Amino acid sequence: MKTAQLLIVAIFFLSLNGLSQEKEAKFLQFNNFSSNFEVPEGKTWVINSIFSSSIGEIIENSDGTISTLPVRIFIKTLNGDIKTDYAGNRFGPQVYQSDNTAASVSYPITLPENTKFSLVIVVGNPGNCKAFNGTGYINLYEVTNNTF
What we know:
The protein is mainly β and 148 residues long. It has one helix at 2-19; strands at residues 23-30, 36-38, 43-52, 58-60, 66-68, 71-78, 81-82, 94-97, 109-111, 116-125, 128-131, 136-144.
């Protein structure tokens, strides 16, 4: 009887161990020329944040004060579907805004295997923005999918 109980406990702990997923922290750097990503087969990406380390252009206002234009990061494409075309005044989900972090989608963002997406970094406000020659970063966990 005691052996059977030990066997049941061992099976229980082994099955719990199989439920835990491996995850690896990643920190990806990108710009407007290197912003195409694909979640690898058998993985899930849990994106914790997307941001830029830069502020936008500095502007001198007519009253002599100085302000900056916001840097924004938008989802450009998602699985081949165009979400943002800033030159055509079409704006998809915003994932970062330098002067108002509350103006972006909430995190975490979970993307399943084989998801393809690209990002675009712009400076300015929708309707009056241009490509930003800066760097963006993605902080994520790459989780290994369980196969049963």
